[in-house]
Design a protein that fits this description.
The structure is a single chain. The chain is an alpha+beta fold. It has helices at about 10-20, 25-35, 40-45, 55-70, 75-85, 90-95, 100, 110-140, 150-175; strands at about 185-190, 195-200, 205-210, 215-225, 225-230, 240-245, 245-250, 255-260, 265-270. The protein contains nine helices and nine strands. The strands form two sheets. It has a five-stranded antiparallel β-sheet with strand order 3-2-5-8-9. Strands 4-1-6-7 form a four-stranded antiparallel β-sheet, with no helix packed on it. Helix 1 (about 10-20) crosses helix 3, helix 4 runs antiparallel to helix 5 (about 75-85) and helix 8 (about 110-140) packs antiparallel against helix 9 (about 150-175). Residues about 1-5, about 90-110, about 140-145 and about 175-180 have low confidence and may be disordered.
Length: about 280
């Protein structure tokens, strides 16, 4: 995909390359500091837009690269929109919705709370049948046979009834709140392009150091805990964080930032790094 024709236009790639060269920064250093692969950096400098996964990625990479060089990132992204995305074939040249981000979502499955609730109901029914069997045995005894055997059966019956009452109470609590205090549900809604890393339980990458495009939505994810990282910081208005369905505000910060998220919806600062594991 080429540039729009007509008039003197800012050569985006030339501006990036000249600024980097003037500052004496090697392309490998840019990759190390931005986490953008070298082939994409060279594509930006040569304006070879077809190499990039999508316009959203191109905008995110341009913004990150320009900020590193101390350039006006908004002006460069606006120029990209004017020169490239305004072309009639721009939407066809890129595959919107490619599996780069879709593959990060975990496949759906049966609700573990429902499975656990069904098992508890079955256990309760079995216990109730046992109680009825014991009652039938005690009621069928000869009235003249009262003694140690009958007293022992009654004691066993009372013990079974106490256990059944405890099981019933436990079952009610488990069915009422099957996963409370054990899982956290997390969802991200992007209002602007932003580089994000999201780790699930056991440092499982759910969003692997990606530049997420404005208007995209990630999740919901469910796990015992999460670690949410912003390798190059953030503006609080760039995204909305939802925990257990409720919007959660995070403080304004500068530079690389990370948060550990645990049940029920606790958010606390974590050690910030500039990459995913």
């Amino acid at each position: 995909m080429g540039n729009s024709a007509g008039g003197e236009q800012m050569r985006i790639g030339e501006v990036l390359k000249r600024s980097r060269t003037r500052q004496g920064i090697e392309i490998a250093d840019v990759e190390e500091r931005t986490k953008i692969r070298t082939k994409y950096l060279r594509a930006l400098e040569s304006e070879d837009w077809d190499v990039l996964p999508s316009p959203a990625y191109a905008r995110g990479f341009l913004r990150t690269y320009a900020q590193l060089l101390g350039l006006d990132a908004d002006a460069i992204v606006d120029e990209f929109r004017h020169q490239v995305e305004a072309e009639p074939d721009a939407a066809l040249a890129y595959g919107f919705g490619e599996p780069v981000l879709e593959g990060r979502r975990r496949p759906g499955g049966p609700d573990p709370g429902r499975r656990r609730g069904g098992m508890l109901v079955v256990v309760g029914l079995i216990a109730a049948v046992l109680v009825l069997v014991v009652i039938g045995l005690v009621g069928g005894e000869d009235d003249g046979g009262e003694g140690d055997g009958k007293r022992g059966a009654r004691a066993e019956l009372h013990e079974l009834q106490r256990k059944q009452a405890r099981n019933d109470q436990h079952n009610k609590q488990a069915l009422a709140t099957p996963s409370e205090g054990q899982q956290v549900t997390l969802r991200l809604v992007l209002n602007a392009d932003l580089q994000v890393c999201l780790l699930g339980d056991g440092d499982q990458p759910l969003i692997d150091d990606q530049v997420l495009a404005a208007g995209s939505e990630e999740g919901p994810y469910e796990a015992p805990s999460f670690e949410l990282r912003f390798p190059f910081g953030y503006d609080r208005e760039q995204f909305d964080l939802f925990l257990n369905g409720k919007r959660t505000r995070v403080p304004e910060t500068q530079g690389a930032t990370a948060y550990a998220i645990s049940p029920p919806a606790r958010v606390r600062p974590a050690e910030a790094t500039e990459s995913c594991p």
